[in-house]
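Appendix B, example 12.
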Amino acid sequence: MQTRCGYRFKDLSLLDQALTHPSFAAEQTPAPPDNQRMEFLGDSVLQLILSDLLFASLPDDKEGTLTRLRATLANEPATASYAQKLGLQEAILLGKGEEQTGGRERQSILGDLFEAFLAAVYLDGGMDAARSICQRLLPPLADRKRQLLAKDNPKGALQELCQDRFKCKPKYHVLSAEGPVHAPHFVVNVSVNDVVMGQGSGSSHRIAERQAATQALLKFLQDDGAAQD
């Protein structure tokens, strides 16, 4: 497991504690230390690492954007996914009840498990070791920012992506405009370097363009994910 995680512990007792769920500890006599205290520390370590990485990587973004990005990278679904990437769910020690009710795959348990593991790495190897673990697991921060912006301002996010990658702006084309004046229906596509990347429809140009931009962003992000795999 240490090989998969990319870190080898000097003090294995820290790893043992990080992997010990309270339900398992409660069934032992005497009860070994569980991972709740480490979870508390790991949450703070993760917040600091994310804050530092976001501050350095996105120098032009305001506090509100950085705060929202940090929240998406440190919430329960995110931390649970980090635990699964490291294979921690295979090594956690659970009580019989938690084991029988699917605790090994439960998001809340896995999220806490990752934070406890990160604390163990921090205590054993320092902040640089903990940062290295996080950097291996985190998605590209610019892409996560675009995912966030895609919900609020998909046209702006797509334009930023196109300017960064291709030094051009996306172009929107009205394919059809039908229906009566009081209930029009528009179909619009968006192209990047003359390649159609998305299409949308709605009761106004604005709605149709937002849908087209969202579809284009998702395609870019999916293509990026496939390339990384």
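The first strand starts at residue 171 and ends at 178. The chain has two domains: 2-138, 144-228.
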